Structures are given as structure tokens and as C-alpha cells.
Amino acid sequence: MSSRLNRALGPWQLMFTGLSAMIGSGWLFGAERAASTAGPAAILAWLLGAFIALVIAAMATELGSMFPVAGGMVRYANLTHGPLVGFMAAGANWLSIVSVVPVEAEASVQYMSSWPFSWARGMYHDGVLSPSGLAAAAVLVVVYFLLNFWGVRFFARFNSAITVFKLIVPATTAVLLMASSFHGGNLTGAETGGFMPYGLSGVLTAVATSGIVFAFNGFQSPLNLAGEARNPGRSIPFAVIGSVATATVIYLLLQCAYLGAVRPGAGGWAALSFSSPFAQLAIAFNLNWVAVLLYFDAFLAPSGAGATHLASSTRMTLGMQRNGTLPDLLGAIHPEYGVPRPALWFNLGAAYIFLFCFRGWGILAAVISVCTVISYLMLPISALALRGTLADRPRPVRVPVMRVTGALAFMFSSLLLYWARWPLSGDIILLMLLLLPLYLWCRRQDSWAQHRAAARHAIWFMAYLPTIAALSYAGSPQFGGHGWIPYGWDLIVVAGVSLLFCVWGVRSAVATPDLLLMDEADDGLPDIGH
């Protein structure tokens, strides 16, 4: 086995990995779930989600262009704050990506359940997959695995070919639905209880849990595949920013089309429920050929996203091995195909665990969204810290006004975690703390002095997680809390506390980062900018 990756991805191929990850099952279900949570104000939720994603992606782009390594998203925190914080951040990030693989397969099978065949309708009942549906989803996960098995070039060619199709189908669907039936009053709320029937809290919760964060999470894919990018200093910002901007346009079109096409009944937007939202709307308006196209794309779009997330999570596993927190076996790379196959098998097993534990798109999408938010937390902290500790390091991308932008990125991440609502926010934070025994086992060879140093740089993070959980518990009922902090004030308190932790986190960084953790010869990486 080799330890080198192949630099085979150009800027467009890298951007297509981001787009393919973003336009998966999120476009099939995101508009419906956002509307049920926020009503017509779901449009604001998508705009706010895109803005937050761009701010956080800007942090990641500066870091990724500085260190274009495999699994970059799981390695920055390890560089700036040591192995304990690095492992916690990497664990949340890996969970948020590898769990997307089965959710894309579930989305395809859920759309299949609307086919006019008895065997298809038996695959999905009451929001969860049946045993036959699970079997079909399991087969799709194997397909995603095989698309990655024979190398990054094979994967990139497949992904580039289908991404153009994946862009055309959603855009065409949105335009045709609006042309067939569009009730402008739905968008203003004139006939449906107002533009913001569930209040501002509904908009904010929609951003955090309705698939919006889940959809934009795909910007991580170009960063995790940066170790296989040609000219990463130019390719990475092009891929990350370009994919977020393009996906935003597509999702806004889809949300407007959904809001304008449906007529909510007495129960309002929250009462609407479709197993295959856009396909069922197309059939209702006699756009049968569009429905057929949608059923086909229900395989293609999630499959492209599933294969991309499997590729991304595999590089994350490789990155965690390079961090020293996973066994060396997972760092082996196939000498001919340049794929970390042991890591690929490992992620296949993890995907099956998630598939059989969470049997519905909506259930798993909410869990992924919160894990995703936790994974974002370290990006601004690491970027801010490196401005001080590695001030002279070449930065192909340099975020303007970093102190302000970085603080905003951390504040937004904290607010997203709070908007996810109690008890989900607390449950995921508890899951992160349960990773500690695994960390201690992986680092069992470390000396007491090494453990003490890692803990010193991690105290702020270990205090931050229960603090946000406590605020979520005590916060306003609009976000699932007990009402001890009134609505409005709770948002101010979370924002203020997050800024204090941001300062503490930056000051807790290691004084002299060990660049050998990132500039590894066995990644096969040239110098930055060459």
C-alpha cells in the first residue's frame, strides 16, 4: 500500500463535488420541511442559511488554501488546539458527513414509495422505511461505495457528468411548477396566516433543523478533497464559494415554486405532508413527464451526493489517522488507484449503522444538521488563532477583517446550535462528550504530560458545550427551553456568551503549531502555491 494521493481534480471538478453534495436529497425534501417550520418566511431561512454558510465557508477557504491536505476539515483544530479538541471537532465533522451517505439512499427509496406499484408503496410507512425499503437503501449505499472504489478520477468523471443534470432538473421543475400553478398570495402570506406565521423562531429553527444547514454542508467536500486538487490555492476558493452561490439560487427557486404551488388547508403549512413533494405536485398539475424525470433524478441526485459524501468522509477518516487518533491501518492508500480503501470500508460500515438506526430522512437530517453545526465551531477559532501564531504563513485566500468575520462565524455557529431546539441540541452535545472514552483509547500511549497539555488547550471547549446546552435548556419555549430566559433576550445571551468563548478559544491555541501535522510528505503535496 502507498501513502500518496493523486492530484487529479481541477477547479470545475472540485466545484462539482461541492454542488453534487449540496444538491442531493435536500432539494427533494428541504422546501417542504422549511415551509412546514417557517411558512412563506422559509425564503428568509434559505437566505440566512446561505449567508451563514458563506461566512463559515470563508474561514474554511482560508484554512484550506493554506493547508490543502486530505480530510482538511478534521485537521485544522488538531493543528491549533492539540489532539483532544482536534478529536472532538473531527468526530462531530465525520459524523455529520458519513451519516449523509445513508440519508441520501433513504431519500431515493422514499421517492420510490410514490411509484404506482404495490411493491414500491410498501417500502415506506409512517415516516420510516420498511424492511424492504431498508434493503433497497442498503443496495444503493453499496453503489456509492463502488463509485469510490476505483479511484478519484473515476469518481470525478461520474460526478461531473451527473452534476450538470442535477442542476437542470431542479431548475426546470421549479420553473414549470410556477408556470402551471402559482398563487402569489402564498408568498406574502395574504391567504395563509401571514408571511411569518410561526414567528422569527420558526425561521431560525428552519435554518438549523429543516435541511438548510444540511443542504449547504456540502461546501466541505472540496476542502476534504483538497489533497487531490491541482493548484489548490485557486481551485479551493473557486469551488467552495461557487458551489454555495449556485446552490443558493437553485434552492430559492425551489422554495418559491413549492410555496406558490400548494394550497395549505385548515392546519396551515405545518399540516402539509408529502412522501415525494415535487413529484406529487407535478402529477397534481398533469406534469407527468416531469414526475417521471423527478423519479429518475430521485436516484441520480441523492446518489451523486451520497458518493461525494462517502468520498469526503473517507478522506476525513484518513485525516484523523494522520492526526494520530485512528489506527494506522486506516491510512493505507491503494498504490494504483490512490484511494484509502481501508478507510472506505470503515465508512461503509459506519453508513450501515446509521441506516439501520435512523430509518427516515427527516429524523436523520435533523441529527446531521446539529452535528454539522458543532463541526463548524472550530473553523473560525482556528483561522483566528493562526493569524497570530502563523502570521507569516502564505495565504492564497485571505479573509478581510478577520477579527470581525471570525467572531461572527463563531457566533452564528453557536446560534445555529441554539436554534436547533432543546432537547435535540443537548442530545447531540452529550454525544460529543461520549466520544471522550474513544479518544483516551486512541491516545492511550500518550504520557501524562501530553494528556495534561491537550487538556489545557481544551478546557474552553469542554466548558463551551455544556454551557450552550444549559442555555438551550433554560431558554425560551420558542426554542424548546423552559422559559427561564425570555424570548429575544435568550438570543442576545447566546450571542454574547459565544463571543466570550470565542476570545477564550483563540487564546487557548498552542503558541507554536507543529507544521509537520499538516505539511506531510506522505500526502504527496507540493508547497503552497506551487
TrEMBL record:
<feature type="transmembrane region" description="Helical">
    <location>
        <begin position="164"/>
        <end position="183"/>
    </location>
</feature>
<feature type="transmembrane region" description="Helical">
    <location>
        <begin position="43"/>
        <end position="63"/>
    </location>
</feature>
<feature type="transmembrane region" description="Helical">
    <location>
        <begin position="350"/>
        <end position="379"/>
    </location>
</feature>
<keyword id="KW-0812">Transmembrane</keyword>
<dbReference type="Pfam" id="PF13520">
    <property type="entry name" value="AA_permease_2"/>
</dbReference>
<keyword id="KW-0472">Membrane</keyword>
<feature type="transmembrane region" description="Helical">
    <location>
        <begin position="133"/>
        <end position="152"/>
    </location>
</feature>
<feature type="transmembrane region" description="Helical">
    <location>
        <begin position="84"/>
        <end position="103"/>
    </location>
</feature>
<feature type="transmembrane region" description="Helical">
    <location>
        <begin position="424"/>
        <end position="442"/>
    </location>
</feature>
<feature type="transmembrane region" description="Helical">
    <location>
        <begin position="236"/>
        <end position="254"/>
    </location>
</feature>
<dbReference type="GO" id="GO:0016020">
    <property type="term" value="C:membrane"/>
</dbReference>
<dbReference type="GO" id="GO:0022857">
    <property type="term" value="F:transmembrane transporter activity"/>
</dbReference>
<feature type="transmembrane region" description="Helical">
    <location>
        <begin position="12"/>
        <end position="31"/>
    </location>
</feature>
<dbReference type="InterPro" id="IPR052962">
    <property type="entry name" value="AA_Transporter_AGT"/>
</dbReference>
<feature type="transmembrane region" description="Helical">
    <location>
        <begin position="454"/>
        <end position="475"/>
    </location>
</feature>
<keyword id="KW-1133">Transmembrane helix</keyword>
<feature type="transmembrane region" description="Helical">
    <location>
        <begin position="195"/>
        <end position="216"/>
    </location>
</feature>
<dbReference type="InterPro" id="IPR002293">
    <property type="entry name" value="AA/rel_permease1"/>
</dbReference>
<protein>
    <submittedName>
        <fullName>APC family permease</fullName>
    </submittedName>
</protein>
<feature type="transmembrane region" description="Helical">
    <location>
        <begin position="487"/>
        <end position="506"/>
    </location>
</feature>
